[in-house]
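Pair request: fold both.
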Amino acid sequence: MRILVVEDEPTLSMQLCEALRGAGHAVDLADNGRDALYLGEVEPFDAVVLDLGLPVVDGITILKKWRMAGKSMPVLILTARDMWHEKVAGIDAGADDYLTKPFHMEELLARVRALLRRAHGHASPELRCGDVVLDPRNARVSAGGKQVALTSHEYRVLEFLMHHVGKVISRAELTEHIYAQDFDRDSNTIEVFIARLRKKLPPDYIETVRGLGYRLAAPER
């Protein structure tokens, strides 16, 4: 999944990006409100981690403008200790959750996982499609009870498909959601990742819908 981190403190922003990438996500970073506002308007993020105290444009203004523009990606806001009014203002502006600084990185990762689950209508912490199970907390995949070894990009493709079981997903959409903005994107490599996944998963789980894209679904037995 693709996450936007909006944080102007260099050490914290680096820690956030490293933790989210380590959890299997593609991560973009903005260190000021102007860039964050633009990226959120033009790029399809699956979630945003948004600090409220930003240079140029503050986080509340950014969030309000995103929501007014119809942007519905889940947003986790970061607030300063004891700034309860920031939490209220953030929630009223359209935030989905908040975290008070300082925080443990594991808690942030857990909250991001929860936001992604809720955004796609999943109640369980694990994603399931037939015999295939994806555990976002540990970035592990199993099929028929046996662990499946995946590269980082194979994992991102499968996770996105698992969040959209039964839906047709185009190559372009997959490309937009598994790569960060500064990555050299090539939609043709999606075919390579799909081919590798088909070899590693049970037969017939990933269907090619000619001219449209791919659909993940458990085959009828």
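--- second member of the pair ---
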Amino acid sequence: MAAATSSTSRWPTLSTLGPVIGLVVLVATWGRDLPVLAAVGAALALGGAVLAAVHHAEVIAHKVGEPFGSLTLAVAVTIIEVGLIVTLMSAGGTGASSLARDTVFAAVMITCNGILGISLLAASSKHGMALFNAEGSGAALATVATLTTLTLVLPSFTTSVPGPEYNTVQLVFAALASAALYGVFVITQTVRHRDFFLPVEVPIDADDPDIHADPPTGRAALSSLGLLLLSLVVVVGLAKVESPFIEDAVAGAGLPQAVVGVVIALLVLLPESLAAVRAARRNRTQVAINLAFGSAMASIGLTIPVIAIASIWLDGPLLLGLGATQLVLFGLTVVVGALTVVPGRATRLQGAVHLAIMAAFLVLAASP
């Protein structure tokens, strides 16, 4: 018991030092050409900020309950992610015109296959079956599918502008529709039908520290909110610092420029990924699904409107339409996702299937 108490008492200190150290590293490295050793140090600081973000997200979730906890993390990450995308696009360079599409689609595939698959695998491996609410999960998947189709699929088939682009009217419609759909979903999730997004009743897990722990005080929750936002700023900022190394590595390996968007999305979504797996292992699969689908929706519902506004001053075309390979993977994701969420329960097989689609996405992104 003494060891456990000691470990617990050290964790808040580590979760506080992580984002602070990361911020110092971010300030010291921002806008500079870094040697390899400094780049490795920045990567380690990024990892510490990710772990801190997961801890503080769990503190907030314990205070406000679901689905507000997962919504807070998803929206906070996405807002900062949008800032990163706009910053990289405004810097220009190879692939800037398609960076938003590549990053947003990578976020959809990572959340709807990677995070969902590994969460189902973690929950079913430990508890025999992953249980969740089909009503809420199905509504979330339908919203993700509609948002993705309106913003990333249709531009490949419109004819007003050459290439996979929207004209001004179409882009304004997609931006307004994305924001409106996301807003309606958030209201549904948090007000009208909140019970659809709460974890289902399952046997109490004696290993879950939240079972007997008192909710944090309001002061502790506010402190965690501030540190969560700081951690996410550090995560995305250090991802920007590492982006030249990512771009050089991608170019040096002869990989397509779209891989840059995939790597950025992987880095930015690390906090949600870890939080989802931890929730799934505690037999709270619905929380993991809220994080997965909620992050996908936030990535589209917040990114596309901002990018539409930013396109007023950004140079060059805004390529949004997906290619044939991506369209096939997205269609497969929607079909498999629907078959996964409709029963309200899943086994390791469903988790493995989603992870196989995720692996196919990564392989085909690197070798189209």
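Observation on the second member. The chain has one domain: 10-366.
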